[in-house]
Structures are given as C-alpha cells and as structure tokens.
Amino acid sequence: MDKQALRERVWDELEDSGEARFPFPPHNRIPNFAGAAEAADRLVDSEAWQAAETIKANPDAPQLPVRRAALRQGKTLYMAVPRLRDENCFLELDPAKIEDIQHATTVGGSAEVGVPVGPEEMPEIDLVVSGSVAVTEAGERVGKGEGYSDLEFAVLREFGLVDDSTATATTVHELQVVDEEIPTGGHDVPMELVVTPERTIEAATGEKPLGIDWEQAGERVEEIPVLDQLR
User: What is the 3-state secondary structure (H, E, C) of the chain?
Assistant: First the structure.
C-alpha cells in the first residue's frame, strides 16, 4: 500500500467509525480524533515531555491540547509559520508573556500573539511534536502529504537546534496506528513516541534527517526564504 492509499484508508476509517472530530471531513488534513485530550495527557506523563523546556509543535487541531499543556506548564512553544513563507518562519509563544493560553494556541491566536523569529534567534528544541495521518509502532510516520513537518525539522537541524538526541512524538487515535510497513526516506523524521488515548508506544526509530534534502525541496527553495538563505 502506498502512502496516499494509506491516508485515504485511515481518513475513511476515522469518518466511518464516528471517531473523527471537528474540523470535518477528516480528509486532506491531520485528522482530529476522539480522545485527543487523553492522548495529550499521556504525552505529558512521558519522561521526554517532563525533561523538555522548549517544544516545537504543529498547528493542527488534534495537537491543540498538547500546545495548551506546554504553555500551562511553563514550556516555551514554537510553531512554524504556514509553509515557512516568512523570513522569520517560526512563532515563539513565551508562557510568561501570554495572558490567554486558550486563544494563543489556536492557529489564529498564535499568529496574533506569537513573536515571529528566525531559526538563528531560537534556542535548542528539546521535543518535536508532529501530527500524523498514520504511524507504525516502529515510528514510521505519514503526514498529509505536503512534507512541511519533515522540512521544518530539517531547517532546525541546519541551524543546530535539533539533532539525533532530540525527542520526537506524535499523538494519534488507535485507528491511525497501522501494521503496514511505511516506505521512508532520509528526509522522513521518525517518531520515538507514538501516543494514543490508550497507550504510549516507545518506538525503535532510525536516524533523523541530517539537514535539507535539496532534491526533495525542489522548487520550494525559491518560495521559502529560509531555504534560499541556506542555499
């Protein structure tokens, strides 16, 4: 089964089972799911979370409880600007400077109160949280197909902000944990923690990307200022 066929199957299963949550439909996005808050609670209990002071997280709906937990616990949160389209391509959310965590952790709220920063202004990242469409118990991940999550990691790696020791995690529904072997390349970021509402899977992961895969980046180089800068 190729990646797109796997995405379609998981999206369909979440919708048909009634386990998908707003926004609807779950297709063509990182799908929200019943139990996302419980999965976030499990992640919060992990050693990787408790050791982290800085967290980079995706902006999608199922990871909203993760982002809120980070700020409530005094962790500095970073979110990428959509499609890395700005020169200052990350938003810094400092819990000491945020009054309304509920609002600040939404997509619109983070754009309003987050401070745009370039990678050269950021500290090292302790934990990277990614959304997934599907993931295996071995930590192989499938996103929605645009590749920005992996690209963001690669950018951070180029600036020395993440490395092989940086913890990686995803929160998903059990229906998103699949048995199929997912084909991966050097640009794919493996997940060390796969967390569902019911369990925490410690995955045996491979090496993390060493930096930008310029062939994979393709025409995006001209569209993304930080890639143009690195080139």
Answer: CCHHHHHHHHHHHHHHHCCECCCCCCCCCCCCECCHHHHHHHHHCCHHHHHCCEEEECCCHHHHHHHHHHHHCCCEEEEECHHHCCCCCEEEECHHHCCCHHHHCCHHHHHHHCEEECHHHCCCCCEEEECCCEEECCCCEECCCCCHHHHHHHHHHHCCCCCCCCEEEEECCHHHEECCCCCCCCCCCCCCEEECCCCEEECCCCCCCCCCCHHHHCCHHHHCHHHHHHC
**What is the tens place of the pLDDT at every residue in 170-224?**
999 999 999 998 988 889 999 999 999 999 999 977 789 999 999 888 888 999 9
Amino acid at 46: S
